[in-house]
Design brief:
By secondary structure, this protein is α+β, with helices and mostly antiparallel strands. The chain has a single domain, classed as S-adenosylmethionine decarboxylase (4-Layer Sandwich), CATH 3.60.90. The chain has helices at about 1-10, 30, 35-45, 100-115, and strands spanning about 15-25, 50-60, 65-75, 75-85, 90-95, 115-120, 120-125. Strands 1, 2, 3, 4, 5, 6 and 7 form a seven-stranded antiparallel beta sheet that branches.
Length: about 130
């Protein structure tokens, strides 16, 4: 079975590209603005050759409140979640196929939120065929 699995890996196809990260010490006014974050996500979608299905957003009140933006795109999704108390945002960009550029979308979002520093993680989501012998 292990040999079959390794043999199948040679035929690996990339199903998706996943880029996500943490943005620290963001501009509080920017990460608290639902409109600014929606605009940022919509522009990121265009810049990265993605196709919007629907975008939803919520303002979460309270001391540990923030804003959440979720964009459903043909290729998968983009999310931003902010925590005003910590001047922090998490960003998640997942795409399927080869025509979109999730790294470009992620970096655009980082540029717009102006963190003092951030982390970025890139994961290739792939599928492979397992021989059914």
């Amino acid at each position: 079975m292990a040999e079959n699995l390794l043999e199948s890996r040679r035929e690996t196809k990339i199903i998706g590209k996943h880029v996500y990260g943490n943005l620290y010490e963001c501009d509080r006014n920017l990460i608290n603005s639902e409109q600014y974050l929606r605009e940022t996500v919509l522009n990121a979608i265009k810049l990265a050759n993605m196709h919007l299905i629907e975008v939803k957003s919520w303002i979460l009140p309270g001391i540990k409140g923030g804003v959440s933006i979720i964009a459903l795109i043909t290729e998968s999704h983009i999310t931003i979640h902010t925590w005003a108390e910590y001047n922090y945002a998490s960003v998640d960009v997942y795409t399927c196929g080869n025509k979109s550029n999730p790294v470009k979308a992620f970096k655009y979002i980082v540029q717009r939120l102006r963190p003092k520093f951030y982390t970025i993680h890139k994961v290739r989501r792939d599928g492979f065929r397992i021989n059914q012998e």
